[in-house]
Amino acid sequence: MERRLAATFLLLLPLLSVDCVSNQKTTVSWCVLSDAEEQKCLDLAGNATARNVRGSLMCVRGLSTRDCMEKIKNGTADAASMFADDIYAAGLCHGLALAAGESHNGVDGISYYVVAMARRSSSDLSLLEMHERSSCHPGVRTTVGWTVPIGYLVNTSQISVGEQCNFPKVVGNFFGYSCVPGIKDPLHDPRGNNPKNLCEACIGDENDRHICANNHRERHYGEAGALRCVAENLGDVAFVKHTTVFDNSDGKNQESWALDLELDDLKLLCPDGTEAGLDEYLRCHLSDVPANGVVVRVEDKCRVWKYLERLQNVFGNATEGFSLFSSAGYGQSDLLFSDATHHLQRVLGSYTSWLGPSYTAILQAFECEGFC
Ligand SMILES: *[C@@H]1O[C@H](CO)[C@@H](O)[C@H](O)[C@H]1NC(C)=O
Ligand SMILES: *[C@@H]1O[C@H](CO)[C@@H](O)[C@H](O)[C@H]1NC(C)=O
Ligand SMILES: *[C@@H]1O[C@H](CO)[C@@H](O)[C@H](O)[C@H]1NC(C)=O
Ligand SMILES: *[C@@H]1O[C@H](CO)[C@@H](O)[C@H](O)[C@H]1NC(C)=O
């Protein structure tokens, strides 16, 4: 009897998901975070109505990403576009789901890979034995420079934060010296006791000021800065995107350190302790990082997807008039969706299926921080 019921239910499932029968609401309220985003949302709403796209769009102003999560949860809003770490918090802490995700390459939902880069001449270097080594990070609390490398160190049991969850202290004790721009900023170090050695591979500006600043005055700040830090021999390893080295070579960066960069002198360190060439990032990376997704209530997954599908059919490839994946003319980039979006793809599975096993494992390392 029970099995028959289950079989009947399974037969009905595809029908339910195609028709979204359980939900009659026709308006989608989008939670926006800035004037520019609100304006693009209003333009989309007007253009969708003008082109007779079934359903309607409303724009609701949120104070912050967390506020948008609360609003979606209590029904004040229906959807918002969020980046990977916020998708995790929305799913874990608020029980929210994903209706869609961005595809940037037209194939999958991966935005970029985080890789560990070293000088080829550093021959006795392994990602599994980074204790006392020196490291270069684009910035404190960034995905590339902090979340992924520190999550990896936890995942491989090289560090353990215990009950106290004091990541900076543990990371400072682990590495010899590092550059983590911003780690001593009051915002990230309210008690002023984050380890000093996490700034010792930083160099500041031309006049030795702004050392460890969380901005470009610190010349080792950002992904290019982290690469420079390794190229100049101050760090053994830099945590950067798979594209960073190519974005800063062949004259694309005119600073003298970049003009001197020899790609043959660099290599990737793989998470299993081996090494690889710079173009082997597909098999040799710390994590892939998923593109942004559209956060909704679980029961709204289908309805919001159907509306988005209609919107992108009309505005996704527009060569004139309103364009869904462009923010030109609004004075800011990546409004509603990343400008790099090729198309939106449906997310049928859970939010962790979108985040993928490696990025989910990375984020799990931070759960002790009182993620919710
Ligand atoms: C359509 O979008 C454009 C911007 O691309 C905007 O100027 C125009 O006002 C919008 N049309 C409507 C009816 O909202
Ligand atoms: C829904 O949540 C938002 C954000 O926390 C809050 O401002 C609003 O008052 C709530 N609305 C309702 C109806 O509970
Ligand atoms: C590390 O991550 C993998 C998935 O990439 C997971 O299977 C494993 O359990 C994680 N290990 C620890 C110690 O968290
Ligand atoms: C735009 O057109 C290309 C090529 O026909 C197609 O692959 C892509 O899916 C379209 N994008 C959207 C958002 O419809």
Any idea of the CATH class of the largest domain? Answer: Alpha Beta
The sequence of SSEs as H and E is HEHEHEHEEEHHEHEHHEEEEHEH
Mean pLDDT: 93
Largest sheet: 7 strands, mixed
Overall 3D shape: globular
Please identify the structural class as seen in this structure. alpha+beta
CATH topology of the largest domain: D-Maltodextrin-Binding Protein, domain 2
Domains (count) = 2
In DSSP terms (H or I, runs of 4 or more residues), the helix count works out at: 11
- How much of the residues is beta strand, in percent? 15-25%
Topology, element by element:
Blueprint: H1 2-19, E1 27-32, H2 35-50, E2 56-61, H3 65-74, E3 80-82, H4 84-94, E4 97-103, E5 110-119, E6 135-136, H5 143-155, H6 167-174, E7 178-179, H7 222-231, E8 237-241, H8 244-247, H9 256-259, E9 266-269, E10 275-276, E11 287-290, E12 293-296, H10 301-315, E13 343-346, H11 351-364
Parallel strand pairs: 1-2, 6-7, 6-8
Antiparallel strand pairs: 3-12, 4-12, 4-13, 5-8, 5-9, 5-11, 9-10
Helix pairs in contact: 4-11, 5-11
The structure holds 2-acetamido-2-deoxy-beta-D-glucopyranose (4 copies).
